[in-house]
Amino acid sequence: MGNRTNTILQSAFFRITGVIPVDLAIEQMKKFIVKSYGKKGEDVVNKNYAAVDRGGEYKQLPVDPSWANLPDEDAEVNTDPAFINQVVRPINAQDGDLLPVSAFKGIEDGTWQQSTAKYEKRGVAAFVPEWEPENCIQCNKCAYVCPHACIRPFVLDQEEQKEASFTTLKAVGKQFADMTFRIQVGVLDCLGCGNCADVCPGNPKKGGKALVMKSLESQLAEAPNWEYCVDSVKTKQHLVDVKANVKNSQFATPLFEFSGACSGCGETPYVKLITQLFGDREIVANATGCSSIYSGSVPSTPYTTNDKGQGPAWANSLFEDFCEFGMGMELANEKMRARIARIMTEAQDSDCCSDELKALFKEWIENMLDADKTKELTEKITPLVEGCDCKYCKEIASLKHFLVKRSQWIIGGDGASYDIGFGGLDHVIASGKDVNILVLDTEVYSNTGGQSSKSTPVGAIAKFAASGKRIRKKDLGMMATTYGYVYVAQIAMGADQAQALKAIREAEAYPGPSLIIAYSPCISHGLKAGMGKAQQEQEDAVKCGYWHLWRYNPALENEGKNPFLLDSKEPNWDDFQNFLKGEVRYMSLMKQYPAEATELFNAAQENAKWRYNNYKRLANQAWGTEA
Amino acid sequence: MGNRTNTILQSAFFRITGVIPVDLAIEQMKKFIVKSYGKKGEDVVNKNYAAVDRGGEYKQLPVDPSWANLPDEDAEVNTDPAFINQVVRPINAQDGDLLPVSAFKGIEDGTWQQSTAKYEKRGVAAFVPEWEPENCIQCNKCAYVCPHACIRPFVLDQEEQKEASFTTLKAVGKQFADMTFRIQVGVLDCLGCGNCADVCPGNPKKGGKALVMKSLESQLAEAPNWEYCVDSVKTKQHLVDVKANVKNSQFATPLFEFSGACSGCGETPYVKLITQLFGDREIVANATGCSSIYSGSVPSTPYTTNDKGQGPAWANSLFEDFCEFGMGMELANEKMRARIARIMTEAQDSDCCSDELKALFKEWIENMLDADKTKELTEKITPLVEGCDCKYCKEIASLKHFLVKRSQWIIGGDGASYDIGFGGLDHVIASGKDVNILVLDTEVYSNTGGQSSKSTPVGAIAKFAASGKRIRKKDLGMMATTYGYVYVAQIAMGADQAQALKAIREAEAYPGPSLIIAYSPCISHGLKAGMGKAQQEQEDAVKCGYWHLWRYNPALENEGKNPFLLDSKEPNWDDFQNFLKGEVRYMSLMKQYPAEATELFNAAQENAKWRYNNYKRLANQAWGTEA
């Protein structure tokens, strides 16, 4: 059962406590194992049976009675913020009920301090990656795929290197001259999925991987190294173009870290990447679903800030209105910025503002939709307007948080996007507004317990589709392309890291609505290889034709080119059904309903081919020959 | 102002009654004319001014004081059903408040008697068509387009001809040997739009039209002729295949007649046609909107029954759930029919039923999805099961209304379909269920007062788009095609009567979800040529590229053919902007915002071309060459 110990512990609990007769407890546990896992086959049932039996191997350990009253070490000596000690830790210790109302003074509106997740240091992984520098080619792919942002590349200058007590490599790249490089693992934050080690190409010349999974105990010495890197090594992201490629993107500090997502989660690497690219000016409207739970379950907030104190603003709404919720944010933002532009225009004719400021205002108005330019101008404008007492400057100073062009994101799962919130999603993309919708597509309602959505493909087992779904997966992306002015992409990070990055970058840059559908392996899929292979599963999915990579970029059509780009190569269809057999959601259909499984798996393959052929026709269509 | 007399009457009212000083009344009327119609241009304002002035031309007529107490002629001597006399007429006379609760005994659930509209005989048209038999080629196009089902072809046998006191022609067609033909107008039901006369091709050899608009007074003698045709001439629809072509379709009795829709309504001819093709087994789930108002505003019910007492069942739900409402009907129907099949299967092994009945049961099970076959079998099975006392026959007899394959329709406007009910529409078409959705596309929320919908094209003025809509019309049809298993069509009856008929026939026959988007000119468009040209406007729309005709038939793909068929010819784009200028919704933009009008009309044309080119590429794509 790998890392799963809950059945062993439950069995031990019954044996030790005797709350019900032990024989009855064991019998009932085994009965429910058959009920819960019977569909998944004899092998799974037997493994669970074995886990129940292993509950008998408990040992009695003496406990010093004085331990019962030991003070909490952390609470005594740490230098963490008061909010962490006085609010977050009591809640995590299940003492939230004891908090007085006054503990929430100033945040009565529900605002919650960001960055609280990093204080958890759960240390729950059985195995964590160990970095083998001699095999590392500094590609940063490990950091790119990490669902919990707990493996990161650090670049140290000579000053920082002096204080460091760990191995480093000479940093590759001329912008890092005289600097050193290290992959550092946050071993107490890691959930031990192993995707980093799985995607690590290692050094082709030497053969070995640069990351090897080792027991947590053996890696505890890395904890202070992580603290040093995170706290004392300054980011070098300004030395590279972080949007240029996968490697560079990982030099940007992730502003989403240590969430409560499952080990190996297929969704969070996308969420994290967006914070690395746009986090300092990002606003997120999040649908209900897994992503709303791991992004903000009190008291844990994984969204955090950069060294300037800037980070994403995040809020959660319902399945059915998440896109409208995000569009409201965008409209409010547009209005505030239009107001700035109006004041700056009025100021041109006044005597109060300096010529320098007037020129800056003019430049801002001309570039107000350019993120980099407005960042630059904001740094110049802010101190000047704050230092001036005229009515124009005072009002602009009061609106200074709107000076930088924002990046509006709307994030939801397939249940929200394909089904319950689809009417709103359609209305929002139709609006033409500059919002970016990220669909974390697990092909099932993951968080509510595995109900079938319109994204669930033919043949998959889900609630409301217990004998296999009988209708095709909806092609949400193609629907959005019919507007002609919506940027659309289907991505799968594990299949093509560069394509995923490119699509996210293009979507954000496109000055209109964007929709990115991101394939996200999930524990509900039951990967036989385990969630440590979540990235590999994406690669397999694309290679066999289960998932297709494409982009539809209206900007290309404006240049007279075909806006549809098929990024997937011709699949190897022979592998399609083997791929299905590697996931319990399909495999269990074969065990329960073999005849239906054959029929539905063939239908699934036919449908995947049908979709691919449609995409191919679109990609190959003659373009620019019309009247 | 053509048929519009309300302004003249209002002006006369103020002059006669003196409820406020006449000068003030005239001044205020003119002020509000500028407010209401200023946008539509000086010409419209001046016509309204002239109407106000014409209110001064009233004449005093003496009224016999005894008339005040004359009894209602109709109520005294007629032979109409009690429900009409006791419930419908009091409500129409605005005496509904006086009805006792007991008047509604037996219909407490809201059920309303069908066919009440035919008793209204409003006689409100100023002009009605007169049939000129010498120019008639018996094409029946006039009946096809009539929004109110008040012009119909009748075929009389020798018996019926003997009793008739009107002119007839020898009926064309060998199935009508020895029979005569007549186009009969229901002059008291007609609203005088004139579309029948407009579409009449006349006799090319003789040159004249077969329908000419004449004053109602001159045509009152036709009223008893209509009564004779409707009441005493039996339908001859069984002699032809009514689904085969436009001409034949009009020999079928319309089961939707004399609704309260506007004169020249672009929607009702589609609704009526569906009742002619499938009305005896049709169920309608109707969204809120114009179609829910004219289809069932107490006490008027235009849905009616055929000579066997069979007709559509109709109910109305909300904008936001109309498709789910219809899908619920379909599911309930499926369940009841599955139950019949189960009982019939069980009966095979029993001793109770006769061998004849068992054979009929077997045949029914094999053909339960075939409309014609189940009609035939129902006539044989019903008397037999009603005459038998076994438990199987008893139960089947109790379910006899489910024996015939039903035709499930879901009808709504563009507001319901493109916007508020779209999430549900998408969910229902995704389900794969055998429902037929008809979208009556007026490109605006007609019934609620002209708000912009996602169907409203670029440049049109509507509420929430007062300076012209700035984003493109949504392509609802193309979205639906992405499922691959949804039959989709765009039609415009006035542009291609045969294509509209073919699409409706194919949609209904397709054993899965169907979506038909029907272009429907509306008074809210402000046709400069008037609603008497509503059919011609559709032809112009298609010829200039404003509207496109196409069908997507998944059944073709199953045969290895391209499922997408473009039925529109290459438009004459030079006429596009002239077309826009023929409708107030566009024209008023030119008057108010000439610069925006130029920009938006160009954008509208570019978008129409973009859509057409996409359709053309789809229609011309290489097919069947894939792996």
Short description:
With 627 residues, the first copy, chain A, is of the alpha/beta class.
Structure description:
The first copy, chain A, has helices at residues 6-17, 22-37, 42-54, 73-77, 82-92, 141-145, 158-163, 195-199, 222-232, 246-249, 268-278, 290-295, 322-348, 355-367, 371-386, 391-398, 414-420, 422-430, 476-481, 497-509, 534-543, 554-558, 576-581, 584-592, 594-620, and strands spanning 127-131, 151-156, 169-170, 180-185, 211-215, 282-286, 313-316, 407-413, 436-441, 487-491, 514-519, 550-552, 564-566. The first copy, chain A, has 627 residues and is an alpha/beta fold. Among the domains of chain A are: 5-54, no CATH class; 337-402, no CATH class; 443-620, Rossmann fold (3-Layer(aba) Sandwich). In chain A, helix 1 (6-17) packs across helix 3, helix 13 packs parallel to helix 18 (422-430) and helix 14 runs antiparallel to helix 15. The N and C termini of chain A lie far apart (64 Å). Chain A binds chain B through residues 419-420, 422-424, 426-427, 430-432, 454, 470-472, 474-475, 478-479, 482-485, 570, 573, 607, 609-610, 613, 616-617, 621-622, 626-627, and chain B through 419-420, 422-424, 426-427, 430-432, 454, 470-472, 474-475, 478-479, 482-485, 570, 573, 607, 609-610, 613, 616-617, 621-622, 626-627.
